[in-house]
Predict the structure of Trichome birefringence-like N-terminal domain-containing protein.
Amino acid sequence: MTLASSKGNGKMVAFPRGLTSIAASVVILAMFLIFASWLLVSFPIGSAIRGYFYGVDGKIVLPASKNVDYSYSNSSSGSNLELPTMNSNSSVVVNNEKAQVSIRSVEKDSMASESNVEPSSSGKDSVDLKNNATLEKPTELPKLSSRATEKKADMSGFPSSNTSESNSVDSGCDLYNGKWFYDPQGPSYTNNSCPVITQMQNCQGNGRPDKEYENWRWKPSKCDLPRFDAKKFLELMRGKALAFIGDSVARNQMESMLCLLWQASIYTLKLPVSWLNPLFHIEQFLGFEILEQWYVREWIVEVPQNRGNKRMQRWHFVSTSVMIVRLWSSWLVRETTEKIDFAPEGVTKLHLDAPDDKLMEFIPNFDVIVISSGHWFAKQSVYVLNNEIVGGQLWWPNGSPPMKVNNVDAFGISVGTILSAILTHPNYTGLTIVRSFSPDHYEGGAWNTGGSCTGKEKPLAIGELVENGFTNIMHEKQVSGFERAVKKATNKSKLRLMDITEVFSYRHDGHPGPYRNPDPNKITKRGPDGKPPPQDCLHWCMPGPIDIWNELVLEIIRREFEGNRNSSS
C-alpha cells in the first residue's frame, strides 16, 4: 500500500517540528536567564546571590610577599617636650536605650558659610581572586604603656545598661592599639568613582605621583577591624540619620563616608563569553562590555539624593531611608560679633559656656552624631565666660587685664560645654561619637610659616614619631572636657570616644601637601631659597587614611546596635 503525498507545494522542505521547537526553547531560555540574572543583581535578595555574581562573600586573596608591617608604638622616651600627654582612653555608656528619631526636612539658610582652616591648597578597583593566600595577620603588639586600659566612666547614677559585656563597645579589644600594615587590595573606591570629593582632597586628581599611601590599613592588636561594608552600614542604619558635626575636617570625613557608601549602589554582572556566543552577539544590545573571557555590565541602581544646602548638607539613600548629614560648626559653641566690654564689634566672640544654638536645634533629629573640633582655635577670637572677657587668640590689646584663658584651655572648655548640652538634651537619645583631635603634620614650621609634609610616602615606623606638643595638649584637653560632660549627663543617650589622635600621628603621608589643585603648573618642590610651596598637611587625601575613621565608626555602630539587638532578643 502506497501513502499519498501531502497536499501543497511539493518543493517545500521543512525541519522536523520537534527540532525547531527545541531550538526556539533554547534561545528563549537563554534570554530568560540573562534577564533574570540582571534582575537578581539589580535587586539582590540574599548574600548567596550577591556572592555568586560579584563575590562580596568570597575570600579575597592577597600575595603575602607584598605585606609590609609598621608597628604602632607610643614610646615617649625620645620626647623632650614638657607638655603632658594623654595617659588614658575614656569611653562611657550613658544608657543603652535607643530611640528611633526620624529626621525632619530643614531648609533654613542662616548657617555661616564654610571655610578651611588652611589656605586653599571611582568605578570599583578590581580584585584578583585567583590566588590562594589570605591576608597575613599582623603580629600582635604589646599594649601601649600610656593607654594600658580603656576606662569606662562610672555612670552609676544613671539607668544601667542591659547590653551584655561581650557585646558592648568597650568589650572585645582596644580598637586604638595596634599597627599599620600594607594591604595590596587597595582602597574601596578611587578618586574617579566618587563624585563628592572636594578638589583640595583629590590628591590623585591633583597630580600626586605616589599612590601607596592609599593601601595602608589599621589592624588592632587583639581583634580585626573589617574593611568598610557599605551594605552592612546601610542595613544597620536603616531608617536612621547620621550627622557629622564640626569644621572642614568633619566635612572631609563626611565625604569619605559618602564615597564608601556610593559603592553599595554599584552592581556588576559577569557572564562567561561562552554563554553569549550562541546568541549571535546579543551582548551588543544588552549593554555588556567584553573583558577577557567575561561579558561585564555595571549598574548604578541608586544615587543618593542631595537634599541639602550651605547650612546643612543632607544625602538620602532612598532604598534604606538612611540620611547622611553634615552640619557646619567651627567652634561648637555660641559665636557672636557684637561689642562686649573692650572687645570691639566685628571680632569673633566665643561664649565658651554656651553651645552653638544653630546646632542644638537639630540634635533631636539624629540617631548617630560624629562630632569633632579644635583646629579653629588657632584663629583669631575672643573668649567669653559668664559675659566676661577672659582671653583671646591673636587678639589681646595692650594694657588689657591679664589673660585667664588661652586657646588650648578654651578648646577644653568648649568640648565640655557642647557634650554636656548633648547629654542633657531632653529629646536626644542617640549615640554620640567624639572623634578625637586630628593631628596635622607640618614639619619645619606652621601652615603659614613654611611647614611642609612633601615627599612623605608611607607611615612612620616605630621610633620615627616626633611628639607634637600642641597635638598632645589639645588631645588631653578634649578628653578632660569629655569626662566633665559625662558627670553631667541626664538623658538616655550614649557617648563614645573614637580616639584616633595617636594612631594617625603616624600617617604623615596621608595629606595633600602641595597637591591641592589640578593646576599642571603649580609648584610642588622647594624653591632656590629652600622654602616649600604652600601646602595642606591638615586635611586628608581621598581615598586615604581618613577612610579608616569611617571603618571605626561602622565598628562602633555595629557593636552598639547589634549588641542591643542581641540583648533584647
